[in-house]
Amino acid sequence: MPIPRLRTLVVAVALVSSACSGSSSPASTSEDAAPSTTSPPPTSAAASPTSVAEPTGAAGSDDLRVLGDLGSVELVDPAPSGRHPVLAWHPVDGADRYRVIVLDADGAPYWGWLGSQTAVTFGGAESGQGLVAAVFEPLTWTVTAVGADGRVLAVSDPGVLPGG
């Protein structure tokens, strides 16, 4: 997966996660699962998203509205510190919390974190909680800033954690 498209994936995952955590709905049939629209094939020159769409109707509705321009979270390059680097970023005005997602070399989720701080030790959250993940291969990471109302305010471009 090209790195510029990772930002789009992170925003899409965050929106789907928010939409799916709402009210419960009756079980869907296989007909409900079929897409009602098709999207054009991806191009080789992917652009970074500047706006995001959010569902406005009931869960599963195709009715989307544009929230507006997204800000950008500026990552701080982690200093070489072995298998558990400190991931840090600059604060975003209005952000209530930050979501960190780390993907492995294949683009699969490897580790995640949600909190209000602007830095976290990779593999653990607080001192004394133990480290559950470590850097053994190149990984990519992104930060999403979320407001108190749950809206996505800003998304970072992917950062790279070199493997060891």
- Uncertain regions spanning at least 5 consecutive residues: 1-57
Characterize the main sheet: 5 strands, antiparallel
Overall residue-averaged pLDDT value: 71
Strand content: 25-35%
Helix count? 2
Number of domains: 1
Using only CA atoms, what is the Rg?
A: 17 Å
Number of strands: 10
So what's the overall shape?
globular
What would CATH call the class?
Mainly Beta
- Can you write the helix and strand succession as a string? HHEEEEEEEEEE
Polypeptide structure, described:
It contains two helices and ten strands; from the N terminus they run ααββββββββββ. The chain has a single domain (3-21, 48-158), classed as Immunoglobulin-like (Sandwich), CATH 2.60.40.10. The radius of gyration is 17 Å and the shape is globular. Strand 8 (139-147) and strand 9 form a beta hairpin. The longest helix is centred in the first third of the chain and has 18 residues, at 3-20. Strands 5, 6, 8, 9 and 10 form a five-stranded antiparallel sheet that branches. It has helices at residues 3-20, 30-33; strands at 51-55, 64-69, 75-76, 86-89, 95-103, 109-115, 119-121, 139-147, 152-155, 159-161. It is of the alpha+beta class and 164 residues long.
Question: What is the compact description of this entry?
Answer:
13% of the residues lie in helices and 32% in strands. The protein is α+β, with helices and mostly antiparallel strands and 164 residues long. The relative contact order is 0.21.
